[in-house]
Inverse folding.
């Protein structure tokens, strides 16, 4: 008998195996989220919103009420829902294009209003579903279908520093972090805190997750790992950027550090 | 009224669509009729229509000085928003009587702060126009709440009407409500306003014992 | 508990935008999400003024995209939620409305038309008919009521919430800047006291029970993998819309029996038209009046029957033929002559309608 990997209770078995590519970071991000849902026991009082791009493949991923929206528009749908039903735990799940490009005004405005929602944003340095175009997070010199000679920061800017931006515009009650799928334990702590912060009614909660996309990166396992472990963190600093005092007190002043 | 020797400075304020402009126009023309020099100042900085602009020419022809934008001089009115005509700011430096028509808004009454010298003007009288057919000022409690929000109010004007459906009963019911609010607020009712034929039916005093004044409705011409 | 907003019937004097805010309260709407644009602003102003009194929710969003998508969120949460917009705002609103169409979400949108194209003028026009009836990348699965009076605005705003939640279809109240800003008397009433049943909203998400165990999870999407899958969904919409086409069309007409001419207009222009036709009939001319109240679906049957009974149709609108296009679609195959009186972006007076009508029956 084959050994089945442990699956979070909140995952929907009927839709597994999931449809993400082998080696894709979404699977790990969604496992971490599933475990956090189980641990916090919120499966029956949460709404999961997913965007366009690879994140939409999560539309039937959980045994959780789920709405798949338009590109960049998951944030306002979830804001409208949360304000209508504050007792629900509402998560907006999106990619870097949805959050930092087409939906940037929604992310910025929800953050500035300190909307009590949790935004989880997958950063894999390009638009994956549409075939590997340049994203706001594409690294300088990185080749994509729309930057075939490598991203030129002089012409197209530097990679968006999303959590840094969100941390700057949110009040102290917000939770802001950047995790990576290469550190699931640390990521689990971040995602859990991002949900707890909403449940406590404190403020906007945001986790950017560095994630792998070997299909569009055209990398083997070794180089995929090298890219996420070594290259991406030189542009995107992993760690917590904003932690409400309540967490710091509970953890005895010890946050989830970059080396967590 | 025609023996007044000092200058008259009146500001008409009140709820959205309460009839401020109508009352201000009638008052300004009444004073012109007494042979006085009168300037009517449009301080409605929000509303793109139903303000004085469309009837400016007609009023000027009647001998009024009108300080108001011409619609064609303003770009994207109500969008580019709050545009105060520079002339309006200095209106109190003019000679003769000054009638201000103040626009609405949560802070509408504070529009007067934009006028130079308003704090030192001894003749200033601020009058709140109330139409009790409007749900926001449809009960004594609502009227009192509303007038208190306006900060300075020296007198109330009952302008209760239902346009062409207005009857003497409608006006009298309004007069009773405004009269009651006036007692609670300790602010006098300066007049109850009605079009001539209804004012005639009511007589010189309304149901609450306040003076009745006949007016002509000009504002319906500001739209179509 | 908050107090009842309206008891008994009351004759009141208001602007059109205020009427919409009060009607939404009377319809027991709970949430408005919106973004400022003239000439609909006072809907938001009065909704926010009434909000604490009647325990209502409001958010001024960052743009109309957000206003539309938050409205979708409110509806998914099971609350009667609406928004209001105009002009370029109506353009942005098409994206969320396309999602509402696809997922059959009962959003209610009040459109107070302004001049176009582009920013244009802030007060008046009938140039958002095409956008409101058939905007978006879809098939126009929408319900659109075009109002002419303040009483219409009150009645049809209440009705829009009922129809939206009954048929699960985005529903519009299409007014214009004149109606929004003009003042006239109307009767306000509590719909339930009048015997109008208010359709109760139902949540799509956040239902009781453990999803996947005690109940299936609510999984809602607007993306499909295969053409066949999509075709099946759209065909279901087509079928639902056929029922709507049978049940919902509304219109107003008089004097169309064997008329020499019937004047067709909608919305505020129908007021001038009605006045003109009444005057012409008083002169003894055999001229009729027809006003579609629903522009989507159009009152096809009544229009086709009318076309069989008249010699000519004069279509009057403050646009360059946006109503006329809908009309021609309804009258396809009929040979009745259709004469335009198009005044894009400006008002139409009864005198203009009378003059043109006289020429046509001379």
């Amino acid at each position: 008998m084959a050994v089945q990997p442990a699956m979070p209770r909140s995952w929907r078995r009927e839709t597994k195996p999931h449809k993400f590519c082998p080696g894709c970071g979404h699977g790990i991000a969604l496992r971490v989220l599933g475990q956090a849902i189980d641990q916090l026991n919120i499966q029956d009082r949460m709404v999961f919103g997913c965007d366009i791009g690879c994140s939409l493949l999560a539309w039937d991923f959980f045994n959780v009420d789920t709405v798949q929206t338009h590109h960049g528009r998951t944030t306002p749908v979830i804001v409208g829902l949360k304000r209508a039903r504050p007792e629900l735990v509402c998560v907006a799940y999106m990619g870097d294009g949805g959050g930092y490009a087409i939906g940037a005004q929604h992310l910025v405005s929800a953050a500035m209003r300190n909307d009590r929602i949790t935004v989880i944003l997958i950063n894999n340095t390009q638009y994956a579903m549409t075939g590997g175009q340049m994203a706001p997070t594409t690294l300088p010199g990185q080749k994509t279908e729309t930057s075939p000679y490598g991203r030129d920061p002089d012409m197209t800017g530097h990679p968006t520093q999303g959590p840094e931006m969100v941390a700057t515009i949110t009040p102290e009650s917000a939770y802001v972090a950047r995790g990576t799928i290469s550190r699931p334990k640390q990521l689990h702590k971040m995602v859990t805190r991002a949900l707890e912060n909403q449940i406590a009614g404190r403020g906007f909660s945001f986790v950017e997750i560095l994630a792998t996309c070997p299909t569009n990166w055209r990398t083997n396992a070794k180089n995929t790992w090298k890219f996420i472990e070594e290259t991406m963190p030189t542009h995107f600093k992993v760690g917590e950027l904003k932690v409400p005092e309540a967490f710091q007190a509970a953890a005895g002043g010890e946050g989830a550090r970059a080396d967590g | 009224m025609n023996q007044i020797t000092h200058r008259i400075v009146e500001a008409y304020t009140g709820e959205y669509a309460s009839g401020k402009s109508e009352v201000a126009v009638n008052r300004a023309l009444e004073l012109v009729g007494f042979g006085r020099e009168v300037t009517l100042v449009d301080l409605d900085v929000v509303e793109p229509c139903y303000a004085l602009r469309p009837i400016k020419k007609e009023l000027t022809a009647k001998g009024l000085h009108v300080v108001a934008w011409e619609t064609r001089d303003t770009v994207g009115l109500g969008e580019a928003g709050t545009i105060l005509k520079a002339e309006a700011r200095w209106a109190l430096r003019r000679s003769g009587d000054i009638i201000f028509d103040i626009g609405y808004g949560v802070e509408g009454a504070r529009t007067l702060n934009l006028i130079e010298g308003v704090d030192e003007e001894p003749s200033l009288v601020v009058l709140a126009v109330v139409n009790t057919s409007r749900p926001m000022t449809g009960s004594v409690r609502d009227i009192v709440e509303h007038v208190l929000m306006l900060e300075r109010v020296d007198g109330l004007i009952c302008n209760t009407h239902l346009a062409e459906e207005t009857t003497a009963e409608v006006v009298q019911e309004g007069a009773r409500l405004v009269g009651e609010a006036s007692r609670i607020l300790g602010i006098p009712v300066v007049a109850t306003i009605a079009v001539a034929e209804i004012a005639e039916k009511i007589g010189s005093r309304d149901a609450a014992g306040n003076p009745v004044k006949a007016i002509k409705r000009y504002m319906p011409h500001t739209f179509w | 508990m908050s107090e009842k907003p309206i008891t008994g019937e009351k004759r009141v004097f208001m602007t059109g935008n205020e009427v919409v805010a009060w009607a939404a309260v009377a319809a027991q709407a709970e949430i408005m999400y919106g973004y400022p644009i003239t000439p609909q602003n006072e809907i938001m102003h009065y909704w926010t003024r009434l909000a604490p009194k009647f325990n209502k929710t409001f958010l001024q969003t960052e743009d109309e995209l957000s206003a539309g998508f938050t409205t979708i969120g409110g509806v998914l949460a099971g609350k009667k939620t609406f928004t209001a917009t105009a002009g370029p705002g109506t353009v942005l609103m098409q994206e969320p409305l396309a999602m509402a169409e696809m997922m059959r979400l009962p959003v209610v949108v009040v459109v107070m038309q302004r001049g176009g194209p582009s920013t244009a003028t802030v007060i008046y026009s009938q140039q958002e008919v095409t956008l409101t009836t058939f905007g978006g990348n879809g098939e126009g699965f929408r319900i659109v009521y075009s109002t002419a009076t303040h009483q219409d605005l009150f009645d049809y705003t209440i009705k829009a919430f009922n129809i939206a939640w009954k048929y699960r279809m985005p529903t519009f109240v299409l007014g214009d800047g004149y109606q929004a800003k003009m003042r006239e008397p109307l009767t306000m009433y509590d719909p339930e006291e009048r015997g109008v049943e208010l359709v109760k909203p139902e949540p799509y998400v956040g239902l009781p029970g453990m999803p996947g165990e005690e109940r299936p999870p609510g999984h809602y999407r607007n993306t499909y993998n295969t053409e066949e899958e999509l075709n099946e969904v759209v065909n279901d919409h087509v079928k639902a819309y056929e029922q709507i086409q049978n049940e919902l069309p509304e219109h107003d007409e008089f004097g169309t029996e064997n008329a020499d001419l019937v004047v067709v207009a909608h919305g505020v222009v129908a007021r001038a038209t009605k006045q003109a036709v009444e005057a012409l009939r008083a002169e003894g001319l055999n001229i009729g009046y027809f006003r579609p109240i629903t522009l989507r679906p159009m009152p096809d049957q009544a229009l086709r029957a009318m076309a069989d009974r008249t010699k000519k149709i004069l279509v009057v609108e403050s646009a360059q033929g946006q109503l006329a296009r809908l009309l021609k679609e309804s009258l396809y195959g009929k040979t009745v002559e259709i004469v335009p009186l198009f005044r894009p972006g400006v008002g139409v007076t009864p005198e203009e309608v009378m003059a043109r009508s006289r020429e046509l029956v001379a």
